[in-house]
Amino acid sequence: MKKAIVLGAGGFIGSHLVKKLKKEGFWVRGVDLKYPPFAKTLADEFIIGDLREQDLCRKVIDAPFDELYQLAADMGGAGYIFTGDKDADIMHNSALININTIEAAWKNKVKKIFYSSSACIYPEHNQLDANNPKTAEISAYPANPDSEYGWEKLFSERLYMSFSRNYGMICKIARFHNIFGEECTYNDGKEKAPAAICRKVALAANRGEIEIWGDGKQTRSFLYINECLEGVRKLMDHPEFHGPVNIGSDEMVSINELVNIAAKVAEKSININHIPGPLGVRGRTSDNELIQQKLNWKPNYALEKGIKILYDWIMEQLKKE
Q1: 190 confidence band (pLDDT: 50, 70, 90)
Q2: Which residue, 35, 48, 41, is CA-closest to 17?
Q3: Quick check: 188 pLDDT over 90?
Q4: What confidence category does residue 261 fall into, taking pLDDT thresholds of 50, 70 and 90?
């Protein structure tokens, strides 16, 4: 039986990844500061601990695991990343986690590592046009991310690639583009746009009003969790290609359009009140040419289908409150 360790297993993507690995027959150790908040972990072993602490990292990465997945990070939605109030924490905490992780993995001869980077690494100047953003993997340099979160992710990409070059480690890197789905955070200030909008629409009356930051014409793409994990596993199983590679949808929508999709699945008419707030780049979607070329695969799950699943799940949570 193959053994895997998932760092950040208490988070949204990490907890879903544990489920997928278990279905594929892995023995799984999960590590995080907390257990998954919405469902019991399926990990064979779950260790509560702070990966910023070197001793903890050495304790949990204590064997030549077949696969290590590093998803732990200090992160959140636009309200957390783009205000600037948490920049020091984001840089310090996430960098420490990755430095500790790669050292422990190297010393214990972990066979294969996956690092979850982000679309936030792409230069701000390539994403000023809401209708024509540039996010091909090669466009990451010259570097100019619009947030410290993006800068830390870019640093950590290079950290893993350096260990790969110098020590012969297999390090796979994917740049996630706005992953969403059930069991994600939706009401703690760190929620992403799909969950925040679904919650607002769910709480609003028919023909009611919700608040949206900016003019709502900023564009993004959003990838349903199951497709994200399928892409991750295809990357990990590829014998030669290591990335970095985008894992995201190329179905680009404006935030106003995202509200309309959520309203449609809720069978409501919703008015939007545009207010000032942190926005991030003007436009972003996933360029999927490289992943299709290298892995012969790209996501194709319709956004509305995923939003329906998320909306129904959030409705269930609100009924429990």
Answers
A1: confident
A2: 41
A3: no
A4: very high
Which amino acid is it at 295? L
d(CA 27, CA 25): 7
* Cβ neighbours of 120 (radius 10 Å): 26
Residue pair 211/292 in contact (Cβ under 8 Å)? The answer is no
Instruction: Note the pLDDT tens digit of each residue in 54-69.
Output: 999 999 999 999 999 9
- What does the pLDDT read at residue 301? 92
pLDDT tens across 41-53, in order?
Answer: 999 999 999 999 9
Neighbouring-strand partners of residue 97: none
pTM: 0.95
Domains belonging to the chain, first-starting first, are 3-179+224-247 (3.40.50.720), 181-221+250-286+301-320 (3.90.25.10)
**Number of CB atoms found within 10 A of residue 47's CB:** 14
Q: Residue 85: which residues within 8 A CB-CB, separation 6 or more?
A: none
Residues serving a catalytic function are: 149
**Residue written as token pair 């059930």:** 182
**Rounded to whole angstroms, how far apart are CA atoms 148 and 12?**
22
Please say whether the dihedral angle defined by the alpha carbons of residues 198, 310, 260 and 78, taken in this order, is positive or negative. positive
* Residue indicated by tokens 């905490």: 93
